[in-house]
Amino acid sequence: MNTKRLRQHMFSSKKLAAAGIVAAAALALTACSDDTAPVENADGPLLVTAGTLTVCSNAPFEPFEYNDADGNLTGIDIDLTKLAAEKLGLEYVAMQYDFDAMSSGAAFESNSCDVLATGMTITPERQAKFDFSDPYYDANQGALVKTGSTATSLKDLEGKNVGAQVETTGLTIAKDAGFDVQVFPEVGSLVQAVATGQIDAAIADIGVLESYTTDELSIAFTEKTDEQYGFGVKKDNPKLVEALNAAIKDAKADGTYDEIITKHVGAAGN
Questions:
Q1: Alpha carbons 93 and 82: distance in angstroms, whole number
Q2: In the prediction, which pLDDT does 33 show?
């Protein structure tokens, strides 16, 4: 990716700030109406809004979710969850939402979202709060640094300023390594902090960091985690989990999955 691409990512992070205000307002409004239960979609899953699959995401997190030139959410997660909506015969709505509120399960408690599609790692802590679809992507970690850095491992970052996104595996890895980590609300501001010299390295999912490499920014090394992404669903909504699993399985079987990866990453894989 070139420098122009990085500037576009930074612009996306500015747009997210405004979108975050909208999402926060939406959370506040829905939190005031917790007694509004999800509705039954005939013989289908429970839904926040009848006839519509409401998907919550948190961009920029390219290639999984990001804003296109018109400001609309797109990405691997968006395309895969659209397939589930098609299988269920539902309208599709994707909106920005606070990642912490999704990861904590608050987005489900306030009946704001049907699906969390946000490059979210499946963990036991999250599984205790809500259900997940089958895994759809492997999620190893990496370190984004300024090109020219000699770091080849976490040990080489000792004494450096390290950053990570809130509620992520990258944050856990950095803390476990003993770093006094600077925490950022989303990956766009995390990457910008590396570019401006605010931090020396950003620890995050390698599939995301690769989208932010430029002549000035490079991946220093990779940390294998054996973790995987899944789509979050409120507990006791098995029909929605089944639809997501079917969409993932069928997409991998008929080649649609590789087409989606190629579209958003540039090369089929994982």
A1: 9
A2: 38
CA angle (104, 116, 212) in 5-degree steps: 95
Structure tokens at 3: 């420098």
Exposure string for 226-236, b = 16+ CB within 10 A, e = fewer: ebebbbbbbee
The DSSP string of 34-45 is: TT-PPEE-TTS-
Q: Classify the phi-psi angles of 82: left when phi > 0, otherwise alpha if psi is within -120 to 50, otherwise beta.
A: alpha
Q: Which residue has the tokens 């992070």?
A: 13
Tokens of 59: 């961009």
Residue type, 92: Y
Q: What is the pLDDT of residue 57?
A: 96
Statement: residue 137 has pLDDT above 70: yes
Which pLDDT tens digit goes with each residue over 27-53?
433 333 344 555 555 578 999 999 999
- The candidate with the shortest Cα–Cα distance to 61, out of 81, 78, 82, is 78
Question: What is the pTM for the complete model shown?
Answer: 0.69
